[in-house]
Amino acid sequence: MKKAPKIALIGNPNAGKSSLFNSLTGLRQKTGNFPGVTMDKLIGKWHIESDTDAEILDLPGIYSIYPKSVDEQVVINILANPQHPDYPDMAIVVVDASNLKRNLLLFSQVRDLGIPTILALNMIDVAENAGIVINSVKLSRELNVQVAEVNAKKGIGLNGLRLAVNKTLETKYGSNDSLPVDYDTDLVEEIKEKYGDTDDYHALLWLAEHDNLKQFDEKQRAGFDQLQEKYHWDTQKFQAKETMARYEVLNEIVDSCLHQSPVEEDPVITWSERLDKVFLHRFWGYFIFLGILFVMFQAIFTWATYPQDLIDSGIASLNDFLKTQLPKSQLTGLLTDGLIAGIGGVLIFIPQIAFLFLFISLLEETGYMSRVMFIMDKLMRRFGLNGKSVVPLISGVACAVPAIMSTRSIGSWKDRLITIMVTPLMSCSARLPIYTILIALVVPETSKLFGFFNLQGVALFGLYLLGFFMALFSAWVMKLILKTKERSYFIMELPTFKAPRFNHIMLSIWNSVKAFVHEAGKIIVAISVVLWVLASYGPGDAMQQAEIKVKTENPTLTGKDLENKIAAQKLENSYAGIFGKTLEPVIKPLGYDWKIGIALITSFAAREVFVGTMSTIYSLGADVEDQDATIKNRMRAEINPTTGKPLYDTALGFSLLIFYAFAMQCMSTLATTYRETKSWKYPTIQFVYMTALAYISAFIVYQVLK
Amino acid sequence: MKTIASLKIGERGVIVGFTDEVLSLKLLEMGCLPGTQVTLTHIAPFGDPIAIKVTGYTLSLRIEEAQTIQIV
């Protein structure tokens, strides 16, 4: 077997790159991360010769090799660095035949980088419908590369593409040093001298984009700055001049290879345009968007509960089984209550994440999402956000981790940063179990608003709205604080509407779920283990003392009751309990006692731990049937020692609800913010401002309602 | 000078130049070349952003960005 050649798929967004990738590789694909960034990297295998599989790398869509956003930088970091592990042996540039000239700009740049390149001419049917006929033989001659006509969606023309690949692999392809634009050769020579021999275009690319290229260190970047100064280099000017020069060459080529039938003065209205009349309508546009959101929420919060309950009970029964089978020891405790419970805490989110990505990928695949960005941009801009912030904010309702990762398409750093900072205020699914229990405690089930709406449901909806408006408000404040010279822009393609492809959506869900389990999973599991240790051990012999104390004070208790009592007493004396008591003076003004303090500490790492901690604190075994109802009753029965009234009254309940709505209690989110901003500054600010917001709001709520 | 921002829905113009150097690169990459015909197709509900048809596809941009594209 020959060494597998690496082939990169490059192309404009919506040119059909992903379709081609799926057609070529089918299910033989795997996800990974690009080195240094947690950005989805899709690699698949494609059989190109009887004894050779090529490795196909699907790169994010770009319009040129000059990146404008973080996801585009990933591509350029690979293409600019011939030593990069993903640097391709060959590139297939996928172009949309109905928009040939614009698509060829990127092609000509990639070819000039000296990467053997093939042109895959896609969407010929769309072009033909618009009266465009392309002579691909002539195009191949003019561009001096292999051109393959493909229909990526239907998987037609793959044999021709395979032939073109093999032909190009055989012929050695030298780098192209005759660029269509003038440049200072002395400058290029000096770059090559200092930074290693390369072709002229790579040298110029390094000079222009050195700040975004990971291959250079600080010292090397400073060297580039000096060179820019010495030669009076202006990146913007050069890139604009180069782009114009490229188009000049491409114009001639396209004119000679493309025949455009005269378009009638009144062009036919396509059904895409008809749909846009509705989707971009000043009333129906928002109405439809809200309707879609409503169905999405239904799915995430109603339909997803069935598989979630299955996972929950599955994990619980596995744990019970292990506890009965394995010898009672610390190690068993670590395995069951620490590790497996932690893994369960990750798995439980899979149904919601899957539903979320079902909707997100459906909306993106069809082209509807960019319409939402279009109608929301003006509204979002007022708050320092961007039309593109809509996707992260919506995703934040399921989980802030993928939501923050989806901000990468936002070109402006300020808009992106603000979106990252406020997204965790959206009520994520981990808050839902807490909301459910607390609302059930403080909002009467029977009361109806206007005799129609269930008041508990209204309260729940209110909390979601509260999170959303607080996100907007925080964004607005940050907009006033953050100063930047960089401008935000909204130059974006509105793709035509397309029917969603089932296999794409399934793959997208599968890849997202996998990424979530890998990324967030690691952290949640690690934290669960740490928490288990904190809750299971205390200083000195405090834990043994606790057990003895319970046994001497309750000589009549036996069996389950005794065990539960001991567990509660142990927790009180554990490190977690000590922390809770230390915290008590601080949280007293919010109405919380040390028991809630423990819950706050344990749920600092991940909020979903709250309910579990509560059941431990109120000495419930894990195997009690209908845990939720029982924990509710226990909490309801809890008496405030100073007033003699129920502890969980309206004031405390709402104070806790507000606290959980605003507080930053998620290590995974902070880790994601760190990764995406590449600095500890922003997760720190995020943690501090959200916690302050939670504390102050909860304080006000408690003091007012008390 | 007339810019894309002054077009009405359905109205056409031909790009002649840009007033903003930074934006012009992005616009060029998106196919807005001098000499290209554009048609205004949509205006978002609050008057901004707008969408234009250029080289066979629809491009959305904000009013302030459209103001940097000069047309005749």
CATH class of chain B: Mainly Beta
Fraction in beta strands of chain A? 5-15%
CATH fold-level assignment of chain B: SH3 type barrels
CATH architecture of the domain at 6-170 in chain A: 3-Layer(aba) Sandwich
In helices, the fraction of residues of chain B equals: 10-25%
Structural domains of chain B: how many:
1
Per CATH, which architecture of chain B?
Answer: Roll
Structural class of the helix and strand makeup of chain B? alpha+beta
Number of E strands of chain B: 5
Q: Unreliable segments of chain B (pLDDT under 50, ≥5 consecutive)?
A: none
Average pLDDT level of chain A: 83
Low-pLDDT windows of residues of chain A:
620-625
Order of helices and strands of chain B: EHEEEHE
Gross geometry of chain A: elongated
Characterize the overall form of chain B. Answer: globular
The CATH homologous superfamily of chain B is termed: Ferrous iron transport protein A (FeoA)
User: Which band does the percent of strand residues of chain B land in?
Assistant: 35-45%
Largest interface: A-B, 42 and 30 residues
Descriptors:
heterodimer; A: 706 residues; alpha/beta; seven-stranded mixed beta sheet; two-stranded antiparallel ribbon; 31 helices; 12 strands; B: 72 residues; alpha+beta; SH3 type barrels; five-stranded antiparallel beta sheet; 2 helices; 5 strands; globular
Plain-language structure description:
The complex is a heterodimer of chains A (706) and B (72). With 706 residues, chain A is α/β, with parallel strands linked by helices. Among the domains of chain A are: 6-170, Rossmann fold (3-Layer(aba) Sandwich); 185-260, no CATH class. Chain A has 31 helices and twelve strands. In chain A, the strands form three sheets. Chain A has a seven-stranded mixed β-sheet, sandwiched between helices. A two-stranded antiparallel sheet of chain A has the order 7-9. In chain A, strands 10-11 form a two-stranded antiparallel sheet. The longest helix of chain A has 35 residues, at 502-536. The model of chain A is unreliable at 620-625 (pLDDT under 50). Chain B has 72 residues and is α+β, with helices and mostly antiparallel strands. Chain B has one domain (4-71): Ferrous iron transport protein A (FeoA) (SH3 type barrels, Roll), CATH 2.30.30. Chain B has two helices and five strands. The model of chain B has no long low-confidence stretch (mean pLDDT 90). The chains are: A alpha/beta (706), B alpha+beta (72). The interface between A and B is large, with 42 and 30 residues.
